[in-house]
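question for whoever is on the cluster today: can someone run the full assembly for these? two chains, 697 residues total. i dont have access anymore since they changed the login thing
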Amino acid sequence: MKGFTSSRPRLFVAASLTLILAACGSGGDSGSASGVEANSGAIKIGVLAPLSGDNANSGADVVNAAKLAADEINAAGGVLGRRIEVLPTDDGCDPQTGTAAAQKLLVSGIVGVAGGYCSGAAIPETAVLDPKGIPFIAAAATNPTLTDRGLGTVFRVVGRDDQQGPFAARFLASKVGAKKLAILHDNTTYAKGLAEQTRAGNDSLKLGMDVVYFDAITPGERDYNSALTKIKASGADTLYFSGYLAEAGLIVRQAKDLRLPLRLTGGDATNDPAVIRTAGPAAEGFIATTAPLPAFLPAAAGFTKAYTERFGGAPGPYSVYEYDAVRVLADAVARAGSTDPKKVVEALRATRHTGLTGEIAFDSKGDRQKALYVTAIVRDGQFVPHKKLDAAGNWVDG
Amino acid sequence: MQRWLQYTVNGLTTGSFYALVALGYTMVYGVIRLINFAHGEFFMIGAFIGWSVLSGLAGSGWPAGIVLGVGLLVSMVATGALGVIAARVAYQPLLRAPRLSILISALGLSLALQYSVEGVYGPGFESYPSVLRGRAFSIAGVGVTVSQLAIAAAAVALMVALHRFVQGTALGTAMRALAMDQDAARLMGIDVERVILLTFFIGTSLAAAAGFLSGVYYGQISFLMGFLLGLRAFTAAVLGGIGNIPGAMVGGFVIGLLESYAAGYGSGAWKDVAVFGVLIAVLVVRPSGIFGERVVERV
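^ ran it for u. tokens below:
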């Protein structure tokens, strides 16, 4: 070839080598500098939540709570002398986007994830993070499979649907007086799981309700009149919708338009003001089984005030769980004395933390011991506390 | 029987939306032989522009009828104008290019419109203000709402107006001439480019009307709502005979009813299987559709 003996290419090669060496050299310097930095830079916590799609507002609510928690921790001196940095990442409430988001966070060098709203996305995300030993603290994903797989790095501050389902069944049978129940889900991991758990709860607790309808709608359709007409024909007196808030608003509205003689109820993902906005006056009397809202938690008064001041608007149902999840993770890092994932996971297992949502400790599967479910009802255009179980197992107000 | 009647009422309502959107597909195909994949997005844009208008007028104290009328009109005209701009920018330069180029341009336009709306309005869904919270009443045990009647009436009125326009006016005749033979139309002194843009204006404004009405009816809009509806409306247009205007209207109602019965008697999951199965069957067995003419290629 012509080039190798003439002087220009040699000059070019020499210049390139010089540049490469210089880059390596400075890279090396900044390598060691960033090595020092890495031990004193920010501690990164990933927050995986849906920031696009129908659940975007709930996801944003979770991210806001995480930022609030991080800022309060930093204002108090941070953890191990370092700042906490929150990395909000969109998981789109679907497995593909979630997996990509989890991988992106892995590359960013997080110490753990506090987040997870849609179980259908959270489960694949833990499959990405667990092999690297990165802990995942779920703040809103309630499907039992998340912790049932025994991954060892997955923890949960919110309850599980195999607690919510039987709770819902008990509530519907005893307080709503349902005799013929229609259960509607949307085929997502969460909704189908909750629907099945509710039906199973009815059977195992021998509550005696007749499940006359058990089927799914397709999310995003917007028109659920056919399913509702079938439910009407089934003779049901109560409907329990275990899906998400976008469809719930539409279903409540369409059920009222079809003049269905049903009591309308829903799972914890329907506990959202957007349901009331979509359904309008038709939402009056709608009951949701839910984790307690911040407004009903006495310990959360300061949090609610700080949230409203900073972000405007009331905090959503999962914001307190996310706040607690971030705090629990930071607390575990502090107790572990390092950001080594193994040590953090060890420390997480030994958690005894008092959060906004009460005492937090994890059982052997990583689930929260003593998770609480209550019910909320729509009165005058807002969700307010309805009935809950007291320690003796009786239904009381609030 | 009651169930069947209820499914029929529901099907005719959703059929109104499909019919209005199918008209746009069929008219554009008629004049330039393009399947406008971006058409469903104009349905969505009409819904969003209508939402902005209704939100803006929410505190004005005007009566509900006036507010809705203004919303409908503004959304139709604005989306129609947008449709003309889109046609001018994305389609007109490609009319003499290979067929594939304009199809790809349509796909790209569809995505560009979706994500522009997401950029402007945000990724979540929006709720229409409860302006027309129509009374619901029962006829023979079948639930019907005032909104459903109003939508069916509006859709039929728009379709009748379109039919009169296409059959009775000079511009409408020009559109029909263009659909028959573009070169002969040009020889007759018709300004082909202007008529094409007019076709886009009418087609997209009808889709916008459907979008606005569907926003009022369902109460919820999101930037992805146009995609699947566009595909179903396209099926309706093909079923009725693509290029045939009464065909699109009939096709829309047929698809609406089919969907309703499939979801009601079968299961929600099979609804789309039924609708798109029909699309495949029509293309295989009778590609010219119900009302389409068999066009003989004269060599």
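summary bc i know u wont read the tokens: Residues 22-38 of chain A have pLDDT under 50 and may be disordered. Chain A touches chain B through 38 residues (CB under 8 Å).
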